[in-house]
Amino acid sequence: MLVPCRPYHPFSLYWFLVYGLFLVLLTATSCGNRPSDSPGHPFVETVPSEEAAARPLPADAAPPERQVLRYFSNEPSSLDVSVALYESLGSAFLFERLCMVDENGELIPGAADRWERSPDGRTWTFHLHPGARWSDGTPVTALDFEYTYKRLLHPDSGNVYAFFYYDIKGARAYNQREADDPDLLGVRAIDDLTFEIETEEPCAYLPYVTSYTASSPVPRWQVEKYGARWTEAGRCVSNSAFRLDKWEQGKYMTFRLNPHYKGNNPGHLRKIVRLFSGTAGTGSASGGVGLLPYENDEVDLVGVGSPADLDRIRSDSRLSEQLWKFNGVSTVYLFFRTREPPLNDVRVRQAIARAIDKQTIADVLFKGAVRPAYGMRPPNFPGYAGEKLRHLQQFDPETARRLLADAGYPGGRGFPVLEVWLRDAPPSSQSGQAVQMIQEQLLDILGIRLEIRNMQANAFNRLMYEWEIPMGMVSYGADFSDPQSLLGVPWRSQPRGFTRHDWNNARYNDLIDRARRETERDRRMQLYEEAEWILTSEVGGAFLWHNHRFQLRKPWIKGLKRDRAGFYPFWENNTVYTEMYIGRARLDG
How is residue 487 annotated by DSSP? Predict the structure, then answer.
């Protein structure tokens, strides 16, 4: 049956055109800066509100408009953390990795809800959270992670941390230009929500690698459009609960909730303010500015490192109640250019290690704020073996003198003046004062003269990886809670330019490689213990101290969780920024 047509009416055509124009305008305003080839329905009804993306506030929380956290940090030169780690520290909360870690360093879901290992231990499969979106509304897919890993391993990326990913199939060869096809890398998107990583050998700790800050995903469309400047304000697109809002050069940057976030770790805070201090490219999320801004209520928390500051805080009835201590997972050590004389002689390095009175440094200079180190792993770290290693690098002046004499330099005669380099550590700093004490000890005990040289951090890091530093003092913190992080990553030998130090020992390398493949935990720990004994006895590094961490926190800082040791840690690369909130005490301020 034919249906009769309605008669033509010009007024109906008018409203049809108006309605069509409305839909076009609605589409344009809703899509924002969504890339033209991004998935998703072309008609978006509304842009989600920030409040809709927020985690519900606890009963003791201040109202949403007071959920503002302020902290001091040096200004980064970039936020492109996956290829410019050292230049972009201080805002790790901006990107959500496949896995995240909790207050104990244990793995929890991030961009991936779950993950599993294949029976042969060589393939890990990550299942992404459905509905996750970038801050411009684009869906987060497995292709984003495939692009990210291929990019951070590209030899032209300038990524000094690429070696961290050498467990991935083909990664070492690709990064060191022995192969040029990125599609041969063991990273692939199976579908939009399934990402697969294949390793060269069984790798028990691979999910921890994906949790590290440098494994943060990047938005391909922004990188390809803006190049190295894609993280600037107005261009930066992130996938965590937070997004970059403003970046006032030399002053501050602010972050707000990502209105599109629908992931596993939503945030309580509505705004985070990062106030700048110091030199660009040396960011640290909570310290380095003294106590005055904290006491003036300009910031809500600040790291405390100076023993003098600790003394003053402990003697102040109000500040002492706001001081928090937790275990550090870092080690400060001296490293050497071990392939050139005189430091190529293991006896010289052993003499230096045994001539350093680190207990006195800890007690007198740091007033108990650090613990003497006798190996690379701190006491609270998995597989700690420091007590077994203590005799290898403990203070022993007599043995130190004998070792130096056996090396051909009795009393220091004929020994060249050595330069010891520091990374952004002026004479008044902790590290500067510690090296001055070491300088005095080596002269007094061994007759060795040291000259101290301080360098800007970026230049120091570049020359360290090029093995141009004759002797230097640095800190290295664990990236994840496995011995591979402290023993394998910085100390397993790699070619010049791909790792920190030139120290090389074939037996050590073999033990690390075997431990990396071993899936049985006790056996893994035995292998790492033997490897650490070699590292310590050969003095690949002269280990000095392990840090405690101290932080002043305003009483309205809430939500931090207690760890197994009974502390309330603040780690920049875990979920602390999404868990914390501002309590009602702020209302009285």
Answer: I
